[in-house]
Amino acid sequence: MKLSQILFSQGFGTRRNCADLIAASQVFIDGSARTNPDQVFVTEGLQFSVRGEPWAFHAAAYLMLNKPAGFECSHKPKHWPSVYSLLPAPLRDRPTKTAVSGVQAIGRLDQDTTGLLILSDDGQLIHRMASPKHHVPKVYEVTTARAITDAQVSELVQGVVLNDDPAPVAAKACERIDALRLRLTLTEGKYHQVKRMVAAVGNHVDALHRAQIGSLKLPTDLPEGHWRWLSADELAAAMQSN
Ligand code: URA
Questions:
Q1: Would the pTM of this model clear 0.85, i.e. be above it?
Q2: How many angstroms from the chain centroid is the CA of residue 110?
Q3: The CATH number of domain 137-213, selected from 3.10.450.50, 3.40.718.10, 3.30.70.1560, 3.40.50.300
Q4: Most exposed: 32, 68, 92, 174, by fewest CB within 10 Å?
Q5: 178 is catalytic
Q6: pLDDT confidence of 242, banded at 50, 70, 90?
Q7: SS3 content of the chain, % helix, strand, coil (to 5)
Q8: Residue nearest ligand 1's atom 2 by CA
Q9: What is the CB < 6 Å shell around ligand 1?
């Protein structure tokens, strides 16, 4: 692929911006400034730097973010900063086939929820994983305001009625971690589902953390507010979960 196309495809601005970066000797590959926009490179495994920042070519972007509390999963947040502000600009600006550029979060979390977010610019994966039809299990660690009773645990598994739908929703699994903490597995993604289910059994969510989506677990070495590319194995696991 031509160097100018490589930069454009990775989100380094308009075609004009990319041409300017190349002309200004801001793009390095293998230790040399590359000033010919038409020079062709093999993209597989290509590493380069732009304005001194290293970058790895990815034909499609698949990443995970350890979401901190206090961020909204929206490009146009109302009250809190956007989770997308935690990502480097090229990931927000990558051209896509849709009207929205950049990676999108697959399955939003509330502003005050922490934990695993998967983001991608692969429209098919976003559609498949976000679709309620595919029932991708999501594991949440829930801290409650009051001690959790056996009756509450069994009600959550048997199903509770939420106010927007007469059909009961049930957790796929629910286990008590300790007196005030539950591990809850859900296969739907209704609005505020965990908080509403826990409220429906007479308790209250004080803190909520997503630990797992499908077979993909939030790694313990990814600090809050940090992101990284999915490994090939993690991507395969994410693809299989739907
Ligand atoms: N359920 C909720 O109530 N909030 C979340 O952020 C995710 C699931």
A1: yes
A2: 13
A3: 3.30.70.1560
A4: 32
A5: no
A6: low
A7: 25, 30, 45
A8: 192
A9: 109-110, 113, 192-195, 208
